[in-house]
Design goal:
The structure holds two protein chains of two kinds. Chain A is of the alpha+beta class. Chain A contains three helices and five strands, in the order E-H-H-E-E-H-E-E. By secondary structure, chain B is of the alpha/beta class. Chain B is globular, with a radius of gyration of 12 Å. The chains are: A alpha+beta, B alpha/beta.
Chain lengths: 139, 100
């Protein structure tokens, strides 16, 4: 896994996203990159804004690519407040503009854009793993 | 992200260019704030140059749509990039904002 620890992460969202998107594990295909970048942004933002409740903390971001299955894995790890973003109910996307609440779409977009997302709490860390098949698009 | 607002008689033409993401969503909200002051808004947004939006951008579009409805106005978005359109489709925003 290619990874880097950012500490502190206050105002570091863009730097963390840029690090992940510059990884050689990332595909070149623009449609795939769009979906991956969007998911990365939403997941990183979640940690930067909420994990440490205003305090200073770290985030470790990494990527790996299985060259057999062409599954790209993105892993985010932090030592913030235990929080499983996947437990949050999906927004009701059928509501009218009047009824829609502002916000709450970030993790939902990750779920839709990636092929799988899993969360676990391990050794005092939140670990979020997002996977995307980048098949057919690599030489 | 570049926002151009051009008020013509009864209609307000808006052009969006670039990306709306975590780094500039607050600026974007600030830039389009004048659109929320129109008495009876009639807003036409050309999105052909908009290449990306995260949920931060969607948040601002929802606020704008709510404002337009509260003022009994209309708003359309045109020429949306297919990848950006998919974000609007997935989140149901295509049903609450008129996309031509």
């Amino acid at each position: 896994m290619i990874k880097k620890r950012f500490n502190p992460i206050t105002d570091k969202s863009s730097e963390i996203i840029a690090f992940l998107m510059a990884s050689p594990d990332m595909p070149n295909d623009l449609d795939l990159r769009f979906k991956i970048e969007l998911s990365v942004e939403e997941a990183v933002e979640n940690v930067v804004h909420y994990a440490y409740e205003g305090g200073i903390g770290w985030l470790e971001a990494g990527t790996s690519l299985d060259h057999e299955s062409l599954v790209l894995t993105i892993e985010l790890r932090d030592a913030g407040v235990p929080f499983n973003p996947l437990e949050k109910a999906d927004p009701d996307v059928k509501l009218s503009a009047d009824q829609r609440q502002v916000g709450g779409l970030g993790i939902y977009l990750c779920k839709k854009m990636m092929d799988s997302i899993e969360y676990h709490y391990e050794d005092g860390n939140n670990v979020l793993i997002m996977r995307k098949i980048v098949k057919d698009l690599k030489k | 992200m570049k926002v151009t607002i051009n008020k013509q008689n009864e209609k307000t033409l808006v052009t969006l260019e670039g990306r709306i993401d975590t780094t500039n969503a607050d600026q974007f909200q600030h830039d389009i704030a004048p659109l929320m002051d129109d008495e009876r808004p009639n807003i036409d947004i050309d999105c052909s140059g908009m290449t990306y939006t995260s949920s931060q951008g969607l948040r601002v579009f929802l606020l704008l749509q709510k404002s337009v409805m509260a003022h009994h106005g209309t708003m359309v978005m045109r020429n949306m990039d297919s990848r950006v359109k998919e974000v609007f489709d997935i989140t149901g925003f295509s049903n609450i904002i008129t996309i031509l």
